[in-house]
Known about the structure:
Largest sheet: 2 strands, antiparallel
Shape: globular
Distance between the termini: 28 Å
Helix content: 25-40%
Order of helices and strands: HHHHHHEEEEEEHEE
Strand content: 5-15%
Amino acid sequence: HAPFRLVGGKDDNRRVESRENMTLKDITLDRLADRGSLLNAIDGFRRDIDSSGAMEGLDAFSQQAMGILTSSALAEALDYTKEDPKLIERYGKGDPEFRADGAPKMTENFLIARRLVEAGARVVSLNFSRWDWHGDNFGRGRQDMPMLDRALSALVEDLDNRGMLRDVSIVCWGEFGRTPKINGSAGRDHWPRVSCAIMAGGGIRAGQVIGATNRLGEYATERPVTFQEVFATLYQNLGLNLRAVREFDLRGRPQYLVDEGVKPMAELV
């Protein structure tokens, strides 16, 4: 279930996928097919002794991997230089530098996200910059906010111009909020009591502000929205039945996508 990683972390030795890794090197399609047949034979034996049903999922992932290796669609989707230069400029110029444990500020990745969706990707996760501003809150905000605003608005506009926005759900979200009070380092610390998110596309009723906090942004005072409500909204947009789709944990027990009684946000759907 791990995502396809286009970007690693600073001093991160884990393998990062790239366009170059999406092509077959020193191997023919016939030889690849032979390897696929051997894998199927081995998996057939493992499937006979599998009691959890996990092999069915592995089969699907193996088919996807074979599809990637035998098609140029993914490699082409990652090459955004084929786009109109004016459109590339609309997304802005990114900054490839890593900062601590955060992602680089690559605005071009928003454009790649759109191209991946066009190529058939169902879900694209994009990390942008490092928002753990325990210090220099205002300086960092003046740097990062305009870049995010430009790239995110360009993505929404681009999808809309292509007639894709209704079919693509966008959520821009962090892990939690930040303390209402500035600390001694001119920063904000972790604040789980309230946070915010931006949602667009997917046929939702946009142009709304849902919920409110008190004057200092300490806690919700109107229409508190739970994380699971947002998840339920996104799952519904993906066409998943909240009460029918289940995942099985390591003990083989079924787990539903959200807790019983949680529904998509009525204001949006």
